[in-house]
């Protein structure tokens, strides 16, 4: 049923009322006349009034003169009319080629797309392989050079049809799915929506040919919501369901969809085409079950509806089915008469049906003892079966020829039959020996496969263990890193709190009431800030335990400075200043940055131990499209060796110090910033954090 796939799109059209030929004298300009005449021709085409379409389009060409876009369109209409009125492919070809020519001259992509699609099918129908291959190359070039959604939708589908003709089902499905993707991007009109369902149905038909019936049903189900408004396509979908369920031996489902087809109100001969196809399926189903009389009744209906459809291809298929059933009924003369009707144009429409017809003709003549005719049709069957299936049919030809040449020598035939019986026995014995040998080899192969699988499973298990060990090692590293953060960030505030409590406990006489009240307030405030900092750090740590990665967002430096000021508020003997005149906002991970700043501030506080006028200054500024943060203390300072851990991965610092510089280095790298240090003995130290350039 090759033609049906192409007819799907054609029958999805808008019904229109009969139109009167427009009076062109009422229109002044050529452009107005062309527009109204094209509209009139389109309405005739939608009504399938092909004889009038040809006359109207020829007049349209005369009106178009130097307008290649209109000329291309009218040639396309003439080609369509010839193609769909009794399959006049040669005449259709001439007009489609002219349509393509003028579409190229006028650079009209839509006309070119339509002409290429139809030429692809016409070259197939006329078996013009060379021209079709050249056309496919050109179609691919068009697809590579345009992003037009309509062209992509139509020509990808056309490419799919090409590969379907050569039974390259994977390529067919690939291009059809691509076409569906583009069809879904088109305007959501009824025809466009139905075309999506058509494509899904065509994919289902490919899976039917591959005998993957579950997959075919899956795509038929996918098509349902798209074709519910099209009785014609829905009816054909039912036919495909019938084929699937017949192959799966589900008679109730076959009968369900057969009855459903009769409920669809389709127009004109498309109804009869669907009914003929459905009755063909039912006839084949019952013939395969050996219920020949039931199969015959359905075959009669298939032929009747095929005649009413006026479609030569569907009638050819119905007569083929009827011929097979008549053969099974042993009505060989009627079978020959019916099969000859079917064979007239069978080769044009479907080579597989042509092969089947000639095979059944050969068998029917042989059953009547007409060996010469049997041999003739068997030769045709063998020739085209070789072309189609790439298999040898020499034995069938030899058998037919032997029956023809020796029809009067019954005894010799009996002798040959005896010899064949002996040979068959020998062949059976040889088959048994081959089965034993293959079974032994298969057993050895299975054992080898089991051993191989066991070895592969062992390797996979070892690989999984290695991955788990790596994950465990990484988890331990993350845990150690967070313990380092907790140790370093909380050590100083807790130390100040403990220092005051010891002072209050051991030397209360050194603190007067005013100082005690002030320090108590300070301790409470420091403890509250410490609690907030601990909660902040622990919540962040919990969120980072499985995947220690930064999460970038816009972050206000002023807010971070305020939190740092609160965190270190218990260090009352140290002046911590924050300068942020530009109110800097940067994109970074807030928690990573706060951890770096806390660590640097904690290190600065340690550096001020036993120094006078202890002071720490944090600054934030923007310079040359780059953001900088810096911390300066007036501590003892030091040389570069003291800060080696900022640059050297191999440098080890004890856990008591909180791995501060290592931690700062790792976190700074993670958020894409660079830390530089400048330190002078007895003058203090400055750490500068430089963030990457701001894109402008």
Low-confidence stretches: 1-18, 391-406, 654-659
Beta-strand percentage range: 5-15%
**What order do the strands of the largest sheet run in, or round the barrel if closed?**
2-4-5-7-6
Tell me about the biggest sheet? Answer: 5 strands, mixed
Derived structural class: alpha+beta
Distance between the termini: 63 Å
Number of helices: 26
- Helical content stands at over 70%
Coarse morphology: elongated
Can you count the beta strands?
7
What does this structure look like?
The protein is of the alpha+beta class. 71% of the residues lie in helices and 7% in strands. The chain has 26 helices and 7 strands. Strands 2-4-5-7-6 form a 5-stranded mixed beta sheet, with helices on one face. α2 packs parallel to α4, α8 runs antiparallel to α9 and α16 packs antiparallel against α17. The relative contact order is 0.03.
């Amino acid at each position: 049923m090759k033609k049906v796939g192409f007819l799907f799109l054609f029958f999805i059209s808008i019904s229109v009322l009969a139109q009167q030929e427009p009076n062109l004298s009422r229109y002044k300009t050529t452009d107005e006349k062309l527009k109204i005449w094209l509209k009139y021709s389109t309405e005739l085409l939608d009504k399938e009034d092909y004889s009038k379409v040809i006359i109207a389009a020829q007049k349209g060409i005369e009106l178009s003169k130097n307008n290649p876009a209109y000329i291309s369109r009218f040639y396309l209409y003439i080609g369509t009319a010839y193609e769909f009125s009794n399959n006049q492919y040669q005449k259709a070809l001439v007009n489609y080629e002219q349509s393509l020519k003028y579409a190229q001259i006028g650079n009209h992509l839509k006309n070119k797309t339509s002409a290429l699609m139809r030429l692809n099918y016409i070259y197939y129908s006329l078996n013009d392989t060379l021209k079709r291959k050249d056309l496919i190359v050109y179609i691919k070039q068009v697809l590579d050079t345009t992003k037009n959604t309509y062209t992509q939708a139509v020509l990808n589908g056309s490419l799919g049809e090409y590969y379907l003709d050569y039974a390259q089902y994977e390529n067919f499905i690939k291009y059809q799915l691509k076409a569906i993707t583009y069809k879904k991007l088109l305007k959501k009109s009824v025809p466009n929506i139905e075309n999506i369902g058509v494509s899904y149905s065509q994919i289902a038909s490919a899976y039917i040919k591959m005998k993957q019936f579950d997959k075919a049903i899956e795509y038929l189900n996918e098509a349902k919501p798209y074709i519910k408004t099209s009785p014609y396509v829905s009816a054909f979908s039912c036919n495909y369901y019938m084929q699937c369920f017949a192959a799966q031996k589900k008679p109730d489902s076959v009968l369900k969809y057969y009855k459903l087809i009769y409920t669809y109100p389709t127009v004109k001969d498309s109804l009869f085409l669907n009914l003929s196809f459905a009755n063909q399926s039912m006839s084949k189903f019952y013939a395969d079950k050996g219920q020949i009389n039931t199969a015959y009744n359905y075959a009669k209906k298939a032929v009747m509806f095929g005649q009413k459809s006026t479609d030569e291809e569907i009638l050819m298929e119905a007569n083929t089915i009827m011929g097979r059933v008549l053969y099974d009924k042993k009505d060989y003369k009627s079978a020959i008469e019916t099969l000859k009707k079917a064979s007239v144009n069978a080769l044009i429409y479907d080579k597989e049906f042509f092969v089947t017809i000639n095979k059944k003709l050969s068998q029917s003549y042989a059953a009547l003892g007409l060996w010469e005719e049997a041999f003739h049709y068997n030769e045709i069957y063998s020739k085209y079966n070789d072309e189609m299936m790439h298999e040898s049919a020499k034995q069938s030809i030899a058998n037919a020829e032997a029956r023809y040449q020796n029809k009067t020598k019954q005894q010799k035939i009996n002798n040959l039959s005896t010899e064949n019986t002996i040979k068959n026995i020998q062949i059976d014995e040889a088959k048994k020996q081959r089965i034993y040998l293959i079974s032994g080899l298969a057993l050895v192969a299975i054992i080898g496969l089991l051993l191989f699988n066991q070895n592969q499973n062992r390797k996979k298990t070892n690989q999984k263990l290695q991955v788990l060990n790596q994950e465990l090692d990484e988890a331990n590293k993350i845990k150690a890193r967070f313990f380092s953060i907790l140790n370093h960030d909380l050590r100083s505030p807790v130390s100040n709190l403990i220092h005051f409590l010891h002072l209050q406990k051991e030397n209360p006489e050194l603190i007067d009431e005013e100082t005690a009240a002030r320090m108590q307030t300070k301790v409470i405030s420091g403890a509250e800030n410490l609690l907030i900092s601990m909660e902040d750090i622990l919540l962040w740590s919990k969120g980072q335990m499985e995947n220690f990665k930064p999460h970038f967002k816009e972050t206000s430096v002023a807010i971070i400075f305020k939190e740092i000021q609160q965190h270190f508020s218990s260090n009352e003997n140290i002046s911590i200043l924050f300068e942020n005149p530009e109110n800097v906002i940067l994109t970074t991970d807030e928690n990573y940055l706060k951890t770096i700043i806390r660590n640097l501030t904690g290190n600065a506080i340690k550096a001020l131990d036993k120094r006078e006028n202890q002071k720490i200054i944090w600054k934030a500024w923007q310079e040359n499209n780059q953001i900088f943060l810096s911390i300066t203390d007036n501590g003892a300072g030091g040389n570069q060796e003291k800060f080696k851990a900022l640059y050297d991965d191999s440098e080890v610092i004890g856990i008591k110090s909180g791995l501060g510089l290592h931690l700062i280095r790792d976190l700074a790298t993670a958020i894409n910033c660079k830390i530089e240090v400048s330190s002078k003995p007895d003058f203090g130290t400055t750490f500068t954090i430089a963030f990457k350039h701001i894109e402008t």
